[in-house]
Each structure stands twice: as structure tokens, then as C-alpha cells.
Amino acid sequence: MVLSDGAKQRLSLVIELTKTVFHYSFIPTVLYLGFRKGADPGMPEISLANLLW
């Protein structure tokens, strides 16, 4: 499959954008999912203060 130069540039831009979005959103997504799930039984309650301490 042969791509034109314009298609290669657009594909490269999409890949770079995807990498950047993943890079900056991975940790906040993991934290959000952890807060949403909540603490396991017998463990202290999860709060932002516990995260920073």
C-alpha cells in the first residue's frame, strides 16, 4: 500500500496527537477509576488528602 506525502503527514500528526493525549491522560484516568471504585472493605476511605499525603 503506497501512501501519498499528504496522507503520511496526516497519519503522522494523528499518531503524535494520540501519543500526547495518552501521555497526559493515563495517570488522571487511573486515579479517577480508583476513586470511583472506592476503598476495599477494611481499608481507610480514599480522599484527595490521602493521595497527597
TrEMBL record:
Q: How does it sit in the membrane?
A: Single-pass membrane protein
A cellular component annotation (GO) from this entry: mitochondrial outer membrane translocase complex
Alphabetic keyword roster: Membrane, Mitochondrion, Mitochondrion outer membrane, Protein transport, Receptor, Transmembrane, Transmembrane helix, Transport
The subcellular localization recorded is: Mitochondrion outer membrane
Q: What is its main location?
A: mitochondrion
Entry's Gene Ontology BP terms? positive regulation of protein targeting to mitochondrion; protein import into mitochondrial matrix
Coiled coil location: none
Source organism, top-level taxon? Eukaryota
State the family it belongs to: Belongs to the Tom7 family.
What's the protein called, per UniProt?
A: Mitochondrial import receptor subunit TOM7 homolog
Organism (species): Tribolium castaneum (Red flour beetle)
Question: Which gene name does the record give?
Answer: AUGUSTUS-3.0.2_15621
